[in-house]
């Protein structure tokens, strides 16, 4: 093998190693994302609960138990994921079974 071919081979290997490393890094970062706490200063005004059945009915009379993050337009996760992103709460994840008063029916 010529020196030129060896260099090409080394570059190709490093490129593939970089792609593989990126593929492993992304799920790791996603799973490390912080989860929203019900006690969080942002969560309380919107009545966020990890469990939609625990929502305060007196404070949120329009809420129904069929409404949850998994069927909210704003929920960002794959089908079946237990936790996912929500633009209302920035970088923190919300529970798929949760709810807040910004709930919007998924189209
Ligand atoms: Fe859940 Fe939707 Fe409220 Fe976000 S806006 S916390 S996805 S109900």
In a nutshell, what does this entry contain?
The chain is built from 1 helix and 2 strands; from the N terminus they run αββ. The chain has about 110 residues and is mostly helical. Strands 1-2 form a two-stranded antiparallel ribbon.
Task: Explain the overall architecture.
The chain has 107 residues and is mainly α. 27% of the residues lie in helices and 6% in strands. The chain has one helix at 3-31, and strands at 83-85, 93-95. It is globular. Bound molecules: iron/sulfur cluster. Residues 48, 69, 72, 74-75, 86, 88, 94, 98-100, 102-103 line the site of iron/sulfur cluster.
Strand order of the largest sheet: 1-2
* Poorly predicted sequence stretches spanning 5 or more consecutive residues: 13-30
By CATH reckoning, the class of the largest domain would read Few Secondary Structures
How does the major sheet shape up? Answer: 2 strands, antiparallel
Helix-strand sequence? HEE
CATH homology-level superfamily of the largest domain: High potential iron-sulphur protein
Instruction: Please report which band the strand proportion falls in: under 5%, 5-15%, 15-25%, 25-35%, 35-45% or over 45%.
Output: 5-15%
Mean pLDDT: 82
Give a list of the ligands: iron/sulfur cluster
Number of helical runs? Answer: 1
Spatial shape: globular
Termini Cα gap: 58 Å
Number of domains: 2
Q: Level of helix content?
A: 25-40%
Rg measurement, Å:
21 Å
């Amino acid at each position: 093998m010529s020196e030129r071919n060896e260099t090409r081979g080394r570059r190709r290997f490093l490129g593939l190693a970089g792609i593989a490393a990126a593929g492993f890094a992304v799920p790791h970062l996603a799973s490390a994302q912080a989860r929203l706490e019900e006690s969080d200063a942002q969560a309380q005004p919107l009545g966020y609960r990890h469990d939609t059945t625990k929502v305060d009915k007196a404070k949120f009379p329009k809420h129904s138990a069929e409404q949850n993050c998994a069927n909210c337009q704003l929920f960002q996760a794959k089908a079946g994921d237990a936790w996912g992103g929500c633009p209302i709460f920035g970088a923190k994840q919300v529970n798929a079974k949760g709810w807040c008063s910004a709930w919007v029916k998924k189209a």
